[in-house]
Design brief:
about 200 residues; mainly alpha; about 0% strand
Length: about 200
């Protein structure tokens, strides 16, 4: 690296941060049973493609190794080779965006079913799920003014409890893939500028 030029080092730092966030997403994906889901036949529609994921990670690591070689040696060919690895890696990364779109939503357990949110206290007299109350019971409650008022109160209290649970349950999980993408773009731009600086 030419003396006095810090751009390759900034690029390296940005690249390492991008890899760190990617590793966090990969860890989360593996822990939630992503590998098992990807190997199922037929694979679920939201399953990550193992070849795409391996290609994305492999090309990024190859580019990172080339970039480290460029930082240590100053060889311009290594900077351009790192960019050559980075371009298809970014393309494969973009193709996984649709897989990570539900990332901020309800977490999935190892079997792929959504984990329940925080426990919401339900009135004891009201059935737990939608459409579970038998029709004859619903008719009976609606025909009596007192039972009808009680049913409305129970429904309102359940809905308010769910709304409170939703508004209080903020998560920073969406920032991980967002940060990974923003850092990847910043890394690419810094790498292009640093590589142009070698000409």
């Amino acid at each position: 690296m030419p003396s006095g030029h810090a751009l390759p080092l900034y690029t390296l730092a940005s690249w390492l941060l991008t890899e760190l966030l990617g590793a966090l997403m990969l860890r989360s994906w593996i822990a939630s049973g992503g590998i098992r889901a990807a190997r199922q036949r037929p694979a679920p529609s939201d399953a990550m493609s193992l070849p795409v994921l391996a290609g994305h990670a492999g090309l990024n690591l190859a580019g990172l190794v080339c970039w480290i070689g460029f930082v240590l040696s100053g060889a311009a060919a290594l900077a351009w080779l790192a960019l050559a690895f980075m371009v298809p890696a970014i393309g494969l990364g973009i193709s996984t965006v649709t897989i990570w779109t539900p990332y901020p939503g309800g977490r999935r357990d190892a079997g792929g079913s959504a984990e329940p949110g925080p426990e919401v206290s339900r009135p004891a007299r009201l059935p737990a799920g939608p459409g579970v109350m038998p029709e004859h019971e619903l008719r009976r409650r609606l025909s009596d003014d007192e039972l009808s008022a009680q049913l409305v109160d129970e429904l309102l209290s359940r809905n308010f409890a769910r709304r409170r649970a939703r508004t209080v349950n903020w998560s920073l999980r969406p920032l991980i893939p967002l940060g990974h993408g923003v850092l990847a773009i910043a890394t690419f731009l810094l790498a292009v500028l640093a590589a142009i600086g070698t000409v």
